[in-house]
Design a protein that fits this description.
7% strand, two-stranded antiparallel ribbon, mainly alpha, 2 strands
């Protein structure tokens, strides 16, 4: 745990160093921010999108096969149809509503689509529980601490996709 905390602290120090520039004007130093959007907003802006695409990539990888065999057998799906479904939705996940629609089983969904959504929901749970920390620290995600913080919120939202209407509370 000490190692992770130290890694987060170093990443934050590196980010702060690169976000501000020191400008010398008349022997006085001024700090100029590069953006007018607040840092907490930028840190949490794409969390659902990043998680959704990472879960889709995980579902298509070899790491998911041991879990996928059990899940697909329980749902009565073939691996070929499930991977077709994942490839179809992978590029379309660009926000909360799109990710929610990939896991929320609707009344008008057919048996095949409902089974695909349930399998994707189960695989999402496996990813967040066992593989998300490794993904966060080995990916290009800039705001690692925010992604770690919202990991369990994502897990709770995946368990109850009908209540998945927001990720952050009002500040």
């Amino acid at each position: 745990m000490r190692f992770l905390k130290k890694k987060i602290a170093l990443a934050n120090a590196h980010r702060v160093h690169h976000q501000a520039r020191i400008i010398n004007e008349d022997n006085s130093k001024k700090v100029q921010k590069l953006s007018c959007v607040s840092e907490p907003y930028r840190a949490t802006k794409n969390i659902v999108k990043n998680y959704g695409r990472a879960i889709s990539s995980f579902a298509l990888s070899n790491l998911a096969l041991p879990y996928l065999d059990v899940i697909l057998e329980r749902e009565g799906l073939s691996i070929h149809r499930f991977t077709q479904y994942i490839r179809q939705i992978k590029g379309s996940i660009d926000g909360l509503s799109h990710f929610r629609s990939t896991i929320l089983v609707g009344r008008s969904d057919g048996h095949q689509l409902a089974a695909n959504k349930r399998a994707f929901m189960a695989l999402s749970e496996v990813f967040i529980k066992y593989f998300s920390v490794n993904w966060i620290y080995n990916s290009r995600v800039l705001h690692k601490e925010a992604h770690l913080k919202f990991r369990f919120k994502m897990l709770r939202r995946i368990h109850r996709p009908d209540l998945f209407t927001y990720l952050k509370g009002k500040n």
